[in-house]
Amino acid sequence: MKTPATDKEWSVNMDRAAVLLLEHRRWLFASYVDPDALGSMAAMAVYLKMLGKQVYIVLPHSLDSNLDFMEEIIHYHEEIRFIKNEQELLNVQGNVDAVMFFDTANPQLLPFGATIQNSFIAKGLPVIETDHHFGSDSQPLAPKSVQLYRRANANVEIVGELFEILQQHGAQPDPFEKRSILLSLLTGLLCDTGGGQIIPNREDYDYWMAKCQKNLKNLTRWRKGTPDRLGDDHEKKFAAPDHLLQYINKLSSDQEACIQKLLDRVEYNGDVAFLNLLDPTHSRYQVCIQPYESGWFSQVRGRLINEAPERSGKIGVVCFNGISPEGEECIFIKIRRAVKYDRFDLRKMEDPLRAWFDGRYLGGGGHPGAVSFRVTPTEEKQFVADLGKALESVQHQLD
Which domains does the chain have, with CATH numbers? Predict the structure, then answer.
């Protein structure tokens, strides 16, 4: 199980990581991709490119439309390449001399994890890990890695601190003078804190937000159109964090209508708001909901997960069928706290879920205010009953 580094370990490992980043020239980046992980990888990849290095980013799936600007940031740099499938990963194994993992709780969450283990880690390549996830199923991705684990609002904060250490080691130019790096860091920070509403460590959040916001404003220049060239796109050239967040959160009218229809189905059990999106419900709402695996539903799901706890004022639970990181069918149980409620650590839900889904619990974890668990597919009525018993067992702690 991962544990946060002590102050001494943190200082030593940050220096070790900086030395590895400066010494090695061809890097493989991989993670369980969400906006924070993507922002972390993009920011570090752009900076290593500025230092004359090559980066391969494992990204097997296309990004949601509201994150298309991140893909454009990466595609802009020829020295950064996407790895889309296992064969492409195997093709570059002779071109990689170091590996870096971001924001990933355990090896099972890595895309092409077995290939990365056998073709890169097992060959003794140096590895750096950055992460802020701590739970019973968390574990290092490589046993001898340089481990940058600490409690952070978002993984991008660890990357930002690593940039500062690199500068102390003499790395130039200044990464915080590059708009694409600032946007990548802000994307991770905003998305992992619910747009700045869920902030475990206010001091760190304020520091990184102020630094990135100030530099982004100073570096943004608006170019007018000419007969030979279009002017800057004000929708996608972000000059401030709120502008960026607005773009990330944008939804179509169909998506907004779907969200409102589904929120009307929220059920209440004491201080818990529960939204059941299992397959039977999905089939009844085909007109409204697009497939689970679609980017369309991913955006809707994100809003529902954040809206549900606000309905009860304390805890919200959203459940849906999906595919586990291991490629197996499962049921996801997503639990969030309301923005103004911080009296219960949601990681305490793991024990009752493990007990009531005995033999069917697959794992999970997260942060005090946001967790995700997985169980094997279960008949809907039985699943709801077992989940209800698990939630009832902690109701007395929600005062």
Answer: 7-219 (3.90.1640.10), 253-397 (3.10.310.30)
| Predicted pLDDT of residue 62 | 76
CA dihedral of 157, 158, 161, 167, whole degrees rounded to 10: -130
What pLDDT shows up at residue 351?
A: 94
Question: Residue 25 corresponds to which tokens in the numbers above?
Answer: 């020239």
Task: Supply the pTM of this predicted model.
Answer: 0.86
Write down the pLDDT at residue 61.
80
Which residues touch 280 (CB under 8 Å, ≥6 apart)? 380
- Burial class from Cβ neighbours inside 10 Å (0-12, 13-18, 19+) for residue 315 reads buried
Rounded to whole angstroms, the Cα distance separating 148 from 185 reads 17
φ, ψ for residue 329 (rounded to 5)? Answer: -65, 140
Indicate whether 382 pLDDT > 80: yes
Determine the Cα–Cα distance for residues 318 and 305; give it in Å rounded to an integer.
6
| C-alpha span between 394 and 392 (Å, rounded) | 5
By mean pLDDT, which of 58-62, 332-336, 383-387 is the weakest? 58-62
Contact in structure between 64 and 295 (CB atoms under 8 Å): yes
Q: Give the tens place of pLDDT for each residue, 275-289.
A: 998 887 666 665 566
In the block, which residue shows the tokens 């002779």?
A: 94
Tell me the one-letter amino acid at 99. V
Is residue 313 within 8 A of residue 338, CB to CB? The reply is: yes
Q: How far apart are CA 82 and CA 19, in angstroms?
A: 25
